[in-house]
Amino acid sequence: MSSKPLGRAVAILISVLAVCAALGAGHLVAAVVEPNASPYLAVGNTAIDLTPEPIKAFAIRTFGEADKMVLLLGMSVVIAGLAVFGGLVSQRSAWPGLVLFAVFGGLGIAATIARPDLGASAIAAPAVSAAAGTAVFARLHVVARRSGEGTADGRRRFLIAGGAVAAGSALAGIGGMLAGARDGVEASRSAVTIKPPPPIPAGADFAKLGTPSFRTPNRDFYRVDTALRVPRLRSEDWRLRVHGMVGRELTLTFDDLLRRRRVARTITMTCVSNEVGGPYVSTAHFVGVPIRDVLLEAGVQAGAEQVFSTSVDGYTAGTPVDVLLAPERYALLAYGMNGEPLPAEHGFPVRMVTPGLYGYVSATKWLTDLELTTFGRETYWERRGWAERAPIKTQSRIDRPRGFARIPAGRTTVAGTAWAQTIGIDRVEVRVDGGAWQPARLSTEVNLDTWRMWYADLDLAPGGHRIECRATDRNGYTQTPERVPTVPDGATGWHSVFCTAR
Ligand SMILES: Nc1nc2c(c(=O)[nH]1)N[C@H]1C(S)=C(S)[C@@H](COP(=O)(O)O)O[C@H]1N2
Ligand SMILES: [Mo]
What we know:
Order of helices and strands: HHHHHHHHEEHEEHEEHEEEEEEEEEEEEE
Bound molecules: ligand MTE, molybdenum atom
CATH superfamily of the largest domain: Oxidoreductase, molybdopterin-binding domain
Helix content: 25-40%
CATH class of the largest domain: Alpha Beta
CATH topology of the largest domain: Sulfite Oxidase, Chain A, domain 2
Strand order of the largest sheet: 2-1-10-5-6
Largest sheet: 5 strands, mixed
Keywords: Membrane, Transmembrane, Transmembrane helix
Strand content: 15-25%
Organism: Saccharopolyspora spinosa
InterPro entries: Ig_E-set, Mopterin_OxRdtase_euk, OxRdtase_Mopterin-bd_dom, OxRdtase_Mopterin-bd_sf
Domain Oxidoreductase molybdopterin-binding: 229-381
Shape: globular
GO molecular function: heme binding; molybdopterin cofactor binding; sulfite oxidase activity
Number of helices: 11
Structural class: alpha+beta
Number of domains: 3
């Protein structure tokens, strides 16, 4: 491979086409052997796991639920940049580019092996991906060099080869996506029937005044998880193993679960990453089997302290045994949400829901394993600096007016929500510009595990104002004004909004 170097544009085009071939082939093979092994997703998932905690917290705060889109876009930009670089360094010879493909292929294989949720067959995806990329790169280089000799025939050959690679990559990528969509999960979901939820009790929200609706529609329910691609599991393939410090080990199928006593309970879930005033709090009517029933059947040994739960994608959480065993706690192995089978993003076929504890210690989605053990065994988030135990802190939020809103001066309605799961909300107060606290009117209490809405009518003089709220729970605890960050066990402080009246 000596002769004249390739032109820049041709060298870059070859490299980009080879990268497309690698991604397309990898995605297609992954769809067959193990969807999460798609090179793109495997690298993204590894990036998520390796990202230092402060950056992750920043991404969740700044981009919210779009954080994964931002990651995927960022990865696309980086990959495109690498492809251009690979082309530019390979103008004289194909070798630098081939070495780059080998290195990234090796990294892909290593990333796949390092993921606890991917089986051995998953290695086929990055391996085929690297092979396709290398082969296309080498081949197109040869064709381009021949066409570089200037004959019209040579140029035509290069265009045909390049076009074939582009079309083949697109077909492989689309084929992979179609295969992924036809994995039977939707069919499996629609085979599960869940009764419609009861009507929302009268007076449970003040949605007309600007509070959220008492129940959060599934599509609006907040979502927080470490999965770049939602794990897709058919209920027929699902098993739950209950083991560790138990009298007898259990393995339950989905049908076993459906045959058990089912309990329905409306529960407000909250994420520990929720900033004061943040959006990661939602309410749904869940249906499932009390975790207590299953634990009693397995027989909990003396000395067991936590139930260590694992999801199909290798995420782990630890929930205190005494919480799960408390009879009136309604901790559930949930399979129904707001009258539907659990949506895939919320953990289909089965997830945990535990009233009163932040989600990361109590709400494992795509649940497959419950191990009774002692505290001290670190979970996914504990390893990243979050607390071992995390009861939800009493909080309140102003939903109307929105921050920096311009509102008419005079009489105005301030409305919001407050929660103190398992304890109950007794009082919410608001004040303007640090003045006297005024009581807000509370919505009907549905149960102690759900949020309560509130509103108050205030008189606002023209000008800028700071409105604050604070809740008092049934234990008599009034929210502290002291601001602490979300790490390690949940934020505190009063929510405040600035607005301008005129
Ligand atoms: N498998 C799995 N389960 C998980 C998580 C996760 O990342 N993976 N995140 C937890 C966290 S931090 C929260 S707050 C809740 C969020 O549940 P949702 O996405 O249904 O609202 O799920 C919990 N269960
Ligand atoms: Mo969370």
